[in-house]
Amino acid sequence: MNSMLQPAIANSRTIAYRWWALIALALAQFLVVLDASIVNIALPSLGSELHLSTNTLSWVITAYVLPFGGLLLLGGRLSDRFGHRKLFMIGVAGFALASAAAGLSTSGAWLLAARAIQGASAALLAPAALALVTKLFADPRDRAKALGIWGAVASVGSAAGVLLGGVLTASLGWSSVFYVNVPVAALVLAAIPFLIVKDSLGERVSLDVPGSASVTAGIVALVAALSGTEQVGWTAPQTLVLAGLAVVLLGSFIFLEKRALNPLMPLGIFRNKSVTGGNLAMFLIGGATTGLFFALSVYMQQVLHYDALKAGLTQLPLAGALVAIAGVVPAAVKAVGTRKTLAASLILLAAGLIWLSFSPSDATFAANLLGPSILIGIGLGGAFVSGTELAVNGVADGEAGLASGLVNTSQQIGGAIGLALLTTAASSRIDRLLGRGAAEAQALTGGFSWVFLGAAAFAIIGAIVVLAIVRSSSSSKVSD
């Protein structure tokens, strides 16, 4: 009798503490997002101390992004197979250890290896964390609230990276941007066993090794090709070879998945129009936001001559709007549906980006940046929350990790492609303006305005895609 009662008691405990569990899960996701941007401000300091060239410094970012983007699908499937809580905790532990190793780095090779392990660990914890959220909050209304908090915390990570990176590097040195992860990860690891019970294992079936290898290698090749375009160009042999390899590998993956007995990514999941539309939206949101934060940070420091700390502090209104809108999104979803909420959020995001594109080379924060920042924050907050909810809507528990991995993969690949396209367009615009005799500040401003307009185009396309693909549902406004 006692053994029969234990699962019920454990599940009751999980239900009672699920909002605390959500905070712990969101904190881990915050670290994953934060680490993609917090290192940027520290690059000059660590490059000087570790004697790294400018080209090698770019790999401090790439070494994290490549395994993260490449292993997300596999991480999601592993969590479905071996348990979401178990894979989440393994990922958090690996992330903490790799962060400590990165802070202790005495050479470039050591640092790059630690960053790669960070990325691989993030690929385990991120899909498992989102899968746990969707399982903990099965009721559509509670799930909307939970994803509102999740989206706000994760989204703020992007904006907070610049601020925290500047503060920590200036006060404690570059290694502190890595060490800061360790106590937070330790807190999460200590809390999770008390907040979430051990989940049941998936079916004991063999993993799709050929599919895993082909999609991981294909995504890595694609991200590597796109990440290198700014240094070597779009037509360089390196770019063409890697892009061709990516096409072959990803094509092979689709071929293998159609024939696999237990596929890594059952292609039938895309018959769910919410999953398809949500992932396309997150792909385009990733492209818009990566370009936005890159261009905005450089514009503030190189054109407006803000120092790192001031540039970070100017992100606070945007981050504040993100957090504030998270409390409103669930009500909007309940009133008009996820689809319309997402489309409206993307339009607001596009409007803020277009407004920002008119900022001059002598802009002031209050007159030129504050208004667009708040509008962008509102649009981003609504888009992240409703886009994530749409992408996991109607997915079975056995594919929760897969769906969560897809969301993160879409966002990462969209960010890589968007950044490559937008920075190439900006560089071309800057070169043309300089060739016509424009001052450097005016040329840079003109180039960055193209980045903001391009990001706005991504957001508008995302709104059109969502409205076209995801049809209204008479049965539930959540899936509208």
From TrEMBL:
Protein's membrane topology: Multi-pass membrane protein
InterPro entries cross-referenced by the UniProt entry: EmrB-like (IPR004638), MFS (IPR011701), MFS_dom (IPR020846), MFS_trans_sf (IPR036259)
Regions crossing the membrane: 20-44, 56-75, 87-110, 116-137, 149-172, 178-197, 209-227, 239-256, 277-300, 312-333, 340-358, 370-392, 450-470
Pfam family, one: MFS_1
Record keywords, A-Z: Cell membrane, Membrane, Transmembrane, Transmembrane helix, Transport
PROSITE patterns in the cross-refs: MFS (PS50850)
Gene3D superfamilies, sorted: MFS general substrate transporter like domains, Multidrug resistance protein D
Subcellular location: Cell membrane
Residues covered by the Major facilitator superfamily (MFS) profile domain: 21-474
Cited NCBIfam families: efflux_EmrB (TIGR00711)
PANTHER family: BLR6921 PROTEIN, MAJOR FACILITATOR SUPERFAMILY MULTIDRUG TRANSPORTER MFSC
Protein name, as recorded: DHA2 family efflux MFS transporter permease subunit
Organism: Cohnella hashimotonis
